[in-house]
Amino acid sequence: MTISIGTRPLQLTLLPNDVLPEGLSWKIQEGYIRTVAWDQEGDSITLGLWGPGEWVTTAYSALRPIEIQCLTTVVVEQTKFTADQVSQFLADHIRTVEEIFWINRIKSAEERLLQLLTWIGSRFGMVSSKGYRLSLKELNLTHKALGDICGLTRVTVTKTLSLIRTKGTLQRISNDDLFIPNKLFLAI
């Protein structure tokens, strides 16, 4: 972790799996983050995925413990919210939690994983007229991480990805990149 101190706002550079300090508000300059809590058995519950330009904080969460975990190398800058920004922040976070909750309620593992990849692709993928290119490597989303987000095991994610690639539902561009055609995008 690198800390820059001076007249400018506090800026941190963190590595994958680092955790941002609690109670402060951050604007993501570079990289990808997830907010996570735990259930009574100690299993993680992903509350959101966030990328460049978005804000994160634990200050408004009723859940404890909650962490802001770095998925990739991240550069964040401490920020203070105005009243309007707090309203927008809360609306964005509520929408994201609802979308993840909706995905997690899909019964079929294949449909659940497809919907998760579609959601991630629409947020962080490269858009084209035919769909989205999604780099799992760029986001540091392993099969285990995808499973943690949508309530599947790593093995189920691996088998399901193989199945949907074989069917041609998703197209593999490289080992870590997928193409998600527009026809797969379901409304959340």
TrEMBL record:
Entry keyword set: DNA-binding, Transcription, Transcription regulation
UniProt xrefs under InterPro entries: cNMP-bd_dom_sf, HTH_CRP, RmlC-like_jellyroll, WH_DNA-bd_sf
Pfam short name (any one): HTH_Crp_2
Limits of the HTH crp-type domain: 107-184
Source species, domain of life: Bacteria
GO molecular function per UniProt: DNA binding
GO biological process: regulation of DNA-templated transcription
Name of the featured protein: Crp/Fnr family transcriptional regulator
Organism: Synechococcus lacustris str. Tous
